[in-house]
Amino acid sequence: MPQGCKAAISARGAQTLEKSPEITGASPRAGLAFYNGACPVPCCRRLPQRRPESLHMSTLSSSLASAQPAENAAQPVVAPGSFLTLHYRMAAPGGASIIDTFGGKPATLSLGNGELSPAIEQRLLGLAEGTRATFQLAAGEAFGERNPELVQWVARKLLDQFGDPGERYSAGDVVQFPTPDGRGQYAGAVQQVRDGEGAAVQFDFNHPLAGQPVEFEVHLIGIL
């Protein structure tokens, strides 16, 4: 689990980074699971553009491991466009939770807005209010396989120019970047920091759970 969180750059800076020769490798956006709201790593701080907390996951195939069917057939059921109040948990191999709203304030989201992957939304359709279900996802299904081209060096002068010039980065920090259009976000984990001439920070833009099996648990509290 990343040890710290750092602010990164503005949307204007993201447009420059997208085109800059100061970044090595493929575009950070290539092959990424985007986050319309927040990075799924709990410690990852927001950038200056504040957006509602949400989970965005890339398309995944999942199997329903367990579900508690509602006893009352008259209860509301999930349909396209439903507004949901729910608890959810996403766990890495070994059971360590990456996101867990159980025991805290439930999340709210609208189906079809891209806050959940289409595969997860498809599994939710038809489930009744009060249902609790767990999905087991095989390695790579949730966030794809790791892509070595998404490990990239970003020149420190660009981070200073469009972000906080006094920010200190350390290996393990998770930094959240806005997409160039300012409508989404993606995260990178700091791998290395190079000081002195040619100072740069190496980021891993793969999802933290890329290439790993994932467990997704949900409890549907309310459906509108």
Quick take:
By secondary structure, the chain is mostly beta strands. It has one domain (1-224): Roll (Chitinase A, domain 3).
Annotation keywords:
224 residues, mainly beta, Chitinase A, domain 3, 6-stranded antiparallel sheet, 5-stranded mixed sheet, 3 helices, 11 strands, 30% strand, elongated, disordered N terminus
Overview of the molecule:
By secondary structure, this protein is mainly beta. The protein has a single domain, classed as Chitinase A, domain 3, CATH 3.10.50.40. It contains 3 helices and 11 strands, in the order E-H-E-E-E-E-H-E-E-H-E-E-E-E. It has helices at 11-19, 118-124, 156-162, and strands spanning 4-6, 63-67, 83-91, 97-100, 107-110, 132-137, 151-155, 173-178, 185-194, 200-204, 214-223. Strands 2, 3, 4, 5, 6 and 11 form a 6-stranded antiparallel sheet that branches. Strands 1-8-9-10-7 form a 5-stranded mixed sheet. A hairpin with a 5-residue loop joins strand 3 (83-91) and strand 4 (97-100). It is elongated. The two termini are 35 Å apart. 34% of the residues are buried.
Which CATH architecture is right? Roll
Give the rounded overall mean pLDDT.
74
What is the count of β-strands? 11
Termini separation comes to: 35 Å
Which secondary-structure class do the elements indicate? mainly beta
Kindly state the percentage of residues in helix.
Answer: 10-25%
Strand content: 25-35%
Could you name the ranges where pLDDT drops below 50 across 5 or more consecutive residues? 1-5, 26-66
List the helices and strands in order. EHEEEEHEEHEEEE
* Discrete helix count: 3
CATH class membership:
Alpha Beta
Provide the number of structural domains.
Answer: 1
Could you tell me the CATH topology label.
Chitinase A, domain 3
- Main sheet overview: 6 strands, antiparallel
- Alpha carbon gyration radius: 19 Å
Indicate the overall shape. elongated
